[in-house]
UniProtKB/TrEMBL annotation:
Residues 1-26 form the signal peptide. The chain crosses the membrane at residues 590-612. It comes from Acorus calamus (Sweet flag). One of its GO terms (molecular function) is aspartic-type endopeptidase activity. Gene3D superfamilies: Acid Proteases. The active site is at 106, 302. PANTHER family: ASPARTYL PROTEASES (PTHR13683), OS07G0592200 PROTEIN (PTHR13683:SF817). Belongs to the peptidase A1 family. One of its GO terms (biological process) is proteolysis. This is Aspartic proteinase Asp1.
Amino acid sequence: MAKPSLRLILAVLFVVAPHLHRPSEALRDPEIVVRPSNAMVLPLVHTSANASMHQSHLDYRRHLQRVSSHAEIARMRLFDDLLTNGYYTTRLYIGTPPQEFALIVDSGSTVTYVPCSTCEQCGNHQDPRFQPDESSTYQPVKCNIDCTCDRDKEQCIYERQYAEMSSSSGVLGDDIVSFGNESVLKPQRAVFGCENTETGDLFSQHADGIMGLGRGQLSIMDQLVDKGVISDSFSLCYGGMDIGGGAMVLGGITPPADMVFSRSDPGRSPYYNIELKEIHVAGKPLQLNPRVFDGKHGTVLDSGTTYAYLPELAFVAFKEAIMKKLHSLKQIRGPDPNYNDICFSGGGSDVSQISKNFPDVDMVFGNGQKLSLTPENYLFRHSKVQGAYCLGVFQNGKDPTTLLGGIIVRNTFVTYDRENQTIGFWKTNCSQLWERLHLPMAPSPAPSPSYDEIPSLGPAPAFPPSALQNSILPGEFRVGLITFDMFLSIKYPDLVPHVAELAKLIADELEISENQVHLMNFTSEGNGSFVKWGIYPARSAGFISNTNASSIIFRLTEHRVRLPDNYGSYNLIEWKVEPAVKRAWLQQHIFAVVIGVVVTVFLCLLASVAIWHLRRRKQQILGTYRPVDAAVPEQELQLQPL
């Protein structure tokens, strides 16, 4: 079983208005293994009455702001995969000039934070740490009566501790936040955490930090809504099985006509909840009291949790109903012998065909509307047996809360309409979401290098390889060259002796042949070096296949190229794809032509030699022949003496 992501906060986050207890946060991390035996425990601190009154005041103030302002949206791409990586990330740009970060999208967290350059204990994450001194618009949040201050009483701080003993702490800063090159929403000032210390799994994760979408004054959503620049709504769309990636929209959109809704009561739980009343398997309802889904925090929908966790009675009924429909499949052991995963072989390798072997599931809400789930919404692939699948739904220990993680909403556009206190669900192909929703698009607020029309692929955030291949590289397009510029934080003289070694390392990281990587340009810039690389087709090919090109681009843009520490850190500045040059017939067949000419000349020479030998032989034969009547010189008969 893949490692699920599930985390519990123990300490209250002290930020603005410390006299108000903000809702606790369920932060998630891919390195934390939470099995069904480890019951999900949600917040230890509930929202107080004063906090509720304060929230009502904020809601009223936001309503007035929205009436008088033109709300926009930020459309952003999601990367990674929930079951492979344990989370989805998006790209956020902080500062002037913008510094890029890969942040875990978490609807259960209410603070956005990134590692700070001053961090004394931070892990080696995907991108370089935030450099406050390099941003002309950065401002520290100065110590005041409404926040917890550092020891010197100069700056506001935050501190968070989690059940698995990981933690994050740092200072609060204020800077320009940009949302990428597909966002209509202009850059906005926002408060965020600048980490000075990470421990545990926060230290070891690949992603840089967290983008908090929960309810709370430090949430990026709350800050944007308070400014009146977006309406009080956001949406997430997770890619399907074997695809990953997805999309996110900050702000309200016109819902599709066939979107189904459930009421979401912020007073019921500090988390985003829905009114789940029934679960149907293959059209038949589970024989359960609807109140089973309303225990403790009710039914919670959380983007940062990997799988689904049901109360004991609901889980047993669900498991038995599923197994009754799997007559032709064989139950097998799970991929990890340490856990009792429920898995079945013989389901078929094609995701589009698994519905033939596994039943559909329906979730019925309090208003009677129904969300239909396909098998990819409750199954995950067995990592060791081809064509085998395991249940991605588990018992939530003895906890009566129902927790629905990302697996439930794969290939589902989910709208968290906080203003109207509803959550909407729309089944769709998340890799084609922009085309289906017809959302507006604008140039990037973050500066980006210019690039050619066909097809310039950088530096915009990349698709997952499969989506990149289908969406950006047309089927008829043949890639002849991929170039990319990188800035390395190593001095020019120190790098020169190791360029050949660096080329080999890059080839290994991109999983291509070493002879395909060529150094194109190499210049010094301050204490660093600019290097331009070219990736050419393999010697035996005239072009790079779209599949391989997509994989290369994805690895580059996702910072999947890991270099040893002696090369310092690197930034991808620009990348570009050039088409294969269409050569003339002679250029395309020059090798065959040369071989043909050589063979022809050789055969001609061989024939000439053969003819010469034949003529010479003939002459020799003619030279010894005499006609019968030809005159023959007399010869003296010599007698030997007796």
